[in-house]
Each structure stands twice: as C-alpha cells, then as structure tokens.
Design goal:
33 helices, about 900 residues, 19 strands, elongated, about 40% helix, alpha/beta
C-alpha cells in the first residue's frame, strides 16, 4: 500500500556541514536498502512528527520529485500475459484510428479524434484486463467514466469482443443515416442506451459526477438499500480538462467523506486540445499539489521501466534535478524530435547525466517511455489505488498524445484537428503495431483501410474474453432492469387536495407538506432522496431534520448549537437528506447519481432537488443537459420562483426566465402550478411516468416552480379534469354570464403566482367594466407548446390525413373574445402558445432585470398586476369595438397604472 507521503526539501541556503549531511544521506540509503521503503517512510514520518513537536519549522510538503510515487521494490508482479495484452491492444489502437479515418472519406467527413485513445490505450487496457468489474461481478460492478475523446478506443475493443461489427464501426458519428448500425461521437447513453452509462465529453462534468457517483454508492450502502462495498468508481480525465473549475471545485467532498471507492486517472499528455497545458510549468506537479492539498492520495506514474536503471545509477541526483527543472513545453518538444535530440538537449545538461546514456544508442534513448505507456507501472498504480483506505486516489499518468501514430501526430499540438492518416502514416503505424495487413490492402482504397480482427478463436481474443468473464462481463454496459416500486395511493395526496382552509400557505409549503407525506409512504418513502444545497429552513424543510435527518457518513460528532430547538439540525450515517452546502453544481451531480440508480444499481431512487430561484437552470444548465443524456429521472423544484416574489433580493435572484431555459432541454417537463392540488396531480403523474410499470417514456425530469408568497390554497375542485392539469391547461373559473351572454367576453390565461392576479382582474372587469372573462390556469406553457408542435409535425409528415388538433387549440380555439396571458416570467414564456390560437393575443410578462422592491411595486413596474391585466384586456376589446374606445384610458387613470404603489 502506498502512503500519501511527500519528500521534504533540504531547506534554504547552503549546507553548513556537508560532511554530516552526507552521513545522514548514507544512513538513509542504507535504511532503504536493508529495511525497504515502508520502514524508511515510517522513520521519516516519525522524524517529521518529532520536528513539529520541537517547533522546527519546515516548508509545506505539497509536491514530490518528478519521479514515480511507487518505488521499484514495491511494484507488484504483473499478473497477466503482457505480450498477449500488448498484441490485442495494438489491434484496438489500429481499429480505433482506422474507424476515425474511414469516417473522413469525402462523402462523409464527420470527424473524430485519433490521438487521445492512442496515448491512453495502456491506461484503459490495464483497467479492462485486471480491474474494471462488470455488472455480473458479485460486487455489482464498477462505474467507469470514460474520457469523451477516447470513445473510438472503446468501440474498437467492443469490436474485438464481438459486441460491434464492421458495419457498426462504419456508422461512427452517423447516428441517423446509419440507424441500427450507428455509434455516437462520444459517450452518450441516450443515443446508445445499452452501451454507455455516463456522458463525459462536456469537460468538467465527468469529474463532478464521478465524485457524486462514489458518494451515491456509499449513500446506498449506509442507508441499507444496497451493498456497494466492493464497487469502485473510475474517472478518466485529461490534464487539460483539469483547467475547468468544475473539475477541481468538488474535490473536497471526496476527501471529506473518505471516498476511497473513487479513483481519478488523469492522462497527463501535457496537451490541451490544441496546445500545451502548462508550457512554462509542470502540470503534474501542479495537480499533485492541488489534490494533495484537497486531501487526496496522489500516485504519480511518470517514467516507464526503461528509466529504472538510469535512476538507480543517479546517485548524485543530477537526473532527478533535470527531471524536476525541465518544463512541460520542453518535454513536448523532446517527444516531437529524436533520440539524438533528447541525448543532447536533455541528458546533455550535465556531464553526469550525459554519461548515464553514453552506452545507449539514439534508438534506445528514444525508447525511454513515459510511465503511462508501461503496463507494469500502471498496474502497480491501479492496485495501490484500489487497496488504499481512507482517501480517494488520483493517478497522474504521464503519456504522449498520439502515441505510436507517427511523427505527424505524436506530441503535436495540432492533433485535435488531425483526423486523417496519409498512406505513409498508415503504413508506418501498421509497422509499429505489427498489424498483418499488406501494402496492397492499404493502397486499394486510401479512404477505407481495413479493420483487423484475427477471428473469435484466436488465442488473444479468447484471453481478452476470459479476462472480462472473470471480471463480471463487458464494460461499458448499461442495464435498466430495476426493482419495482409500489407507488402511493390517494391517501398520500390528501394534504395537497384539501387546501389550506382559512390559513394562507405558499405553494412551497404545500409542496413540503406533500413531500412529507410521500416520504412517510411505506412503499416509496425510503426511496426519496431530498437534495437541498443550503436553504432548507428557507423552504420550510427543517421539519424533516428530526426524522429524515441529513446524510453524513461520519454521523454527527459535535454538539449542535440549535440542539434545544424542536427542529434542530441533525446529521446521521443513515440520513435521507443530501445537503451539499452552497453548491448547486454538486447538487445536480448528486441528483444525477440518484436519478440514474435504477440503471447503475438496479435500485430506483427518486431525487427531489430543491433549489433557490434561478440558481438552477441558469447556473447548472449544462449539468442538467448531461443528466438528460444519462436519462436521469426525478423532480427539480425551483423554489422562491418568479421575478417579483423575492421582495428584497434583487437582480441576481429575481428569476424571470428559468422556464424558457428549461424548455430547451428535451428531457425536462416543465410546470408552473398555482395551487397545492395542482402540485399533487402533477407529482403523481410524474411518479407514474418516471417509475410506473406501464410508462412508455420514463426518461424525463419534472421541473416544478413553487413560490414563497402565501395565499389561500383552495381544495381540489369537484369534477376537475386531472388530465387537463397534466396536459397543461384547464378552465379554473368561468366569467359572469348572468345576463345571457350579453357582456363582452375575454379569456385570461395565467400560471403560478399570477393566477390570483388573474382572478382579481376577472372581478374588476366584471364589476367596473361589464366584461365577462374566463380565467384559465396554465400549468405548463411548455408542454402545451410541445404538444402543438408535435401535431404540426404529424400533419407535415402525413399530407392528406386529417390533422390532429393540439390540446391548447381544443381548449381555447373557439373561446370567445381576445386572450390576455400573464405570468411572473418574461413574455417569451406564455408566447410559446401564441401561434396555435386564432384569437387576438396579448402577453404580459416581467422582461428585463429584476430589482429589490415590494411585490406590488415590482408588478406595477413590469405591468403584470391585476390592474394591468384589466387595462390590456380592455385595449383588445376596444380594438374589436366591444367596449368604449376610451375605456382603456379611463382604466389607466382609475388604477393609476403609470404610478408605482
């Protein structure tokens, strides 16, 4: 087991007693030689502790020398047949490159990435052959987050495994035109739902999701839902990817929760997509310091076995000094040059290091590999990582981008844009990999060099398959067989249906009361995973603290400051609530892990993520897109919703656009309910769709807005059409037609917190202006639009057939009078349905930035209050000649519409 221990520098200034220092170093060398590295490390640790006790100041230890963390004497024996594994790894590298090359033929030209997998093949193959457990393993299998640009290599392996055909490989990036034989460009579970598990190519999301996947595994374990103790999470990342703030921003969670089931493998090829990561620095040293400071176990794999003898002979430390001082930009230049160049410019920096390679040929100098290409070094690192206890591990593996592809590709900054291999490149690559393909076969069609497969009976293929069988089946693989859920009956929704009586209650509180009853349900309650970043008390969810408790794998080992309160903060190992802190990105990652547990673990969880105002879709829209790709299921609750309900919070809190942002995600079903009973109907429909046995389209997320403005919550109306609520629109209250329909008619459409203004406007129109207006509750503008667009598409594709009438047109198409639509959101939200209705249509919305003021003042400013609804309705009626032409002006004066209250 490798300890996470650094090496202390020799201090500042010159050596005051070189002779004594030499004796100490000689003694330490003897300790290593006679007792081994473990004993040496133990002695160093005790000396460091003693130095601290004697107040001897020492520089902080954040980086070690630019050499392998695992000493040669601690490397385990490699358990496989290295020659066989090298052989089929070469076939995979060939097939991956050929697949991308063939996708570049003139009539296709869809692109692809050659260099990433070429450089990372060893990192993956050691995992595939010896570590990555499949779903049939007794442990339940590992979760592997593959680097997005390396996907060609995973397809090449699946081809040798017999899971993909040549026709499939030729469908790379042609997902519609080659339907049935198509491969997605990157890991996209939604596009290949039986193959990929985790989307990773939006860089930075993979690291976040891997961390929270490891947490989710422990959550399942600690809550007694599944034994995940034998499962590991692997995340393959690029050193350039680590520049993304998301890649580093959540590392502390993994350390705080001691997620030793988590392994990051960072492919340190020293390049971003098109340039050096740290040309003037050393990215491996930077990452070592960063991860070590975040509390991770760090293992560096810098040099291959060919360097072992040279380092052993480097008794004066000259070679290590050069390794430490050489910049990444120079290392890249060395790999793009020659062995002679390396001899002169690297080893030639000191006489001692030049002598180290004096007996080596230029080819031998060129053959000094980086550690990420050495099976033994990588195996040793993986074994140490999986055996390490108490911390997550990061493996920093130094590689060459485009390794083995030839001088046009290896270590070149332009490899991101290089998709094609010339015939000369192909022949050189074939020779390097020893692929038995003739020159004639390569020259027959320069755009279609052949794939290579030796046949299923070949010894190498049998070895490959045997290794996967021993490890529990193929990886990656996605399965969706999950334990059935018993959905709640009517009783669970009673609290939502009975309203609030004479007391006022915001829809946020109506939601919390409903959630509390759902969590009490015997069949479903334990599967609910509430996720709240840091606003539980704001949302009234502190009521859950004493019973559901907050999940913490360490429990609660401190005396809570609010322990005397009935609703005191309470943490527990078995806690149900996930509380990621002020961390929306982490909350969405936790939501994704829980919402895909039905596939990852065969154990359905129901995440319910409650976020504050617009810090959901605006802040984390990319993560929700990835969640949609991963086919996450669950509820997203936008609390303190709307642009004018947050009276004092101001511009960056006043949310007037999240439903529009959500509408751009095809997997998000968006609702803006006004009342508790609407919430109950929608959540029940959501549970049935996402988790019910008869659902045909379960892979969605339900986004519901709830508000902090208290109102009287009415009871469930008798004869209410629940299906209309789910589909997005129902008539809440008809207008006053006591005089046999002689009044002018209008239709007022409202959603969410705007519904009470609409009802008030209805009364004012009747009492002051003699207008009868129907009020409609629009629970989902977005779903109405999607249904209508689908009807248009059906009609477009079926000319001559009777066109289906959209639901919104069925409900409103023949409604008399003009339509006025109002919400607490920007006009674009209700405008989603404008094109599908024949009436005159006016929209009132809160466009622009929000601000701090009273609700009444904000609504008057945006012209969305009840008086604004009245005036806009009168304007439309006056235009039609149905009310006095001067009525709108009179109404504006009557209500002082141009003056803030």
């Amino acid at each position: 087991m490798v300890a996470d221990q650094g090496i202390v520098g020799s201090g500042v200034g010159g050596d005051s007693d070189p002779e004594e220092t030499a004796e100490w170093i000689e003694s330490f060398d003897q300790l290593i030689d006679q007792r081994g590295s473990d004993r040496a490390r133990d002695v160093l640790g005790r000396l460091l502790a003693r130095a601290g006790g004697r107040s001897v100041g020492l520089p902080p230890v954040v980086t070690t020398d630019y050499v392998n963390t695992i000493p040669v004497d601690e490397e385990p024996e490699f358990p496989g047949d290295e020659e066989i594994e090298r052989k089929f790894r070469a076939w995979m590298r060939w097939n991956a490159a050929v697949m991308v090359h063939r996708a570049q033929r003139p009539e296709i030209g869809v692109g692809g990435h050659i260099s990433t997998y070429a450089g990372a093949a060893t990192l993956y193959e050691v995992g595939f052959n010896h570590f990555f457990k499949g779903k049939d393993h007794p442990s339940g299998g590992d979760q592997v987050f593959f680097q997005g640009h390396a996907s060609p290599g995973m397809y090449a392996r699946a081809y040798l495994e017999g899971r993909l055909t040549e026709e499939d490989l030729d469908g790379f990036r042609q997902e519609k035109s080659k339907a049935g034989h198509a491969l997605s460009s990157y890991p996209h579970p939604r596009l290949m739902p039986e193959f990929w598990e985790f989307p990773t190519v939006s860089m930075g999301i993979g690291p976040m999701n891997a961390i929270y996947q490891a947490q989710s595994n422990r959550y399942l374990q600690n809550r007694g839902l599944k034994d995940t103790s034998g499962q590991q999470v692997w995340a393959f990342l690029g050193d350039g990817e680590m520049d993304e703030p998301e890649s580093r921003g959540l590392l502390q969670l993994a350390a705080n929760e001691n997620l030793d089931n988590l392994n990051f493998v960072i492919n340190c090829n020293l390049q971003r997509l098109d340039g050096p990561v740290r040309g003037n620095g050393k990215i491996m040293q930077e990452l070592e310091a960063f991860f070590r400071g975040a509390g991770w176990n760090v293992i560096k794999v810098v040099w291959g076995r060919e360097w072992d003898d040279l380092l052993a002979k480097d008794t004066g430390g000259d070679l290590v000094t050069i390794m430490n001082e050489t910049l990444d930009g120079d290392y890249q230049t060395y790999k793009a040059e020659s062995g002679g160049f390396v001899r002169d410019h690297f080893f030639g920096k000191t006489p001692a290091t030049k002598d180290l390679v004096a007996d080596m040929t230029d080819d031998q100098v060129w053959g000094l590999k980086r550690g990420g290409h050495d099976y033994r070094k990588v195996y040793a690192a993986y074994k140490a990582a999986t055996e390490f206890k108490g911390k997550p591990t990061v493996i920093l593996a130094k590689t060459v981008k485009g390794y083995g592809l030839g001088t046009h590709f290896e270590g070149r900054n332009a490899t991101h844009q290089m998709k094609k291999l010339t015939n000369a490149d192909l022949k050189a690559f074939r020779d390097h990999l020893r692929i038995p393909i003739t020159d004639e076969a390569l020259e027959a069609d320069p755009y279609a060099p052949p794939y290579y497969h030796p046949g299923t009976e070949a010894r190498e293929i049998q070895y490959l398959l045997d290794r996967r069988r021993a490890l529990g089946g193929f990886v990656p693989q996605r399965r969706t067989e999950a334990a059935a859920l018993e959905l709640p009956g009517d009783k669970a929704y009673e609290v939502a249906n009975r309203g609030s009586g004479k007391q006022q209650a915001a829809t946020t509180m109506a939601f919390v009361r409903l959630l509390k009853d759902l969590m009490r349900d015997k069949g479903l309650g334990s599967r609910i995973v509430p996720i709240v970043p840091d606003e539980s008390r704001t949302f009234g969810m502190d009521a859950f603290f004493p019973t559901a408790k907050i999940y913490n794998p360490e429990g609660q080992n401190y005396l809570s400051v609010d322990r005397e309160l009935v609703l005191a903060y309470k943490e527990s190992i078995q806690g149900q609530i996930l509380h990621p802190g002020i961390n929306e990105a982490g909350a969405v990652a936790a939501f994704t892990a829980a919402g895909t547990a039905y596939a990852t673990h065969g154990e359905p969880l129901i995440p319910i993520y409650v976020f504050y105002s617009m810090f959901g879709f605006q802040r984390t829209g990319d993560s929700f897109w990835a969640a949609g790709d991963q086919m996450t299921r669950g509820f997203i609750i936008g609390a303190t919703a709307g642009r004018t309900t947050l009276t004092g919070e101001g511009l960056q809190h006043a949310d007037g656009h999240s439903p529009i942002l959500a509408s751009t995600n095809p997997a998000v079903v968006t609702y803006d309910p006004a009342y508790g009973y609407e919430l109950g109907i929608i959540m029940r429909a959501g549970l049935e769709r996402m988790y019910g046995p008869d659902s045909t389209d379960p892979n969605v997320m339900y986004y519901l807005t709830v508000y902090n403005e208290p109102i009287i919550q009415p009871p469930l109306p008798e004869e209410l059409d629940a299906d209309a609520v789910v589909r997005g629109l129902y008539r809440l209250k008809p207008g006053n037609d006591d005089d046999d329909g002689g009044r002018p008619k209008a239709q007022i459409l409202a959603s969410g917190v705007a519904v009470p203004w609409a009802l008030e406007a209805q009364e004012l129109l009747t009492d002051h202006w003699g207008v009868s207006a129907d009020v409609w509750s629009v629970t989902s503008w977005t779903e109405l639009r999607r249904d209508a667009l689908a009807a248009e598409e059906e009609a477009f594709l079926n000319p001559g057939a009777e066109a289906r009438v959209p639901f919104v047109t069925q409900q409103l198409g023949e409604a008399p009078g003009p339509i006025v639509a109002v919400t607490d959101y920007m006009k674009a939200v209700p405008d989603q349905i404008r094109q599908f209705l024949p009436q005159d249509f006016a929209t009132l919305g809160a466009d622009g930035f929000g601000f701090s003021d009273t609700r009444a003042a904000a609504r008057r400013y945006f012209k969305i209050d009840s008086h604004s609804v009245v005036v806009r309705t009168l304007q439309l009626l006056a235009k039609r000649g149905e009310v006095d032409a001067d009525a709108p002006r009179q109404a504006m004066e009557k209500y002082a519409l141009l003056t803030l209250p």
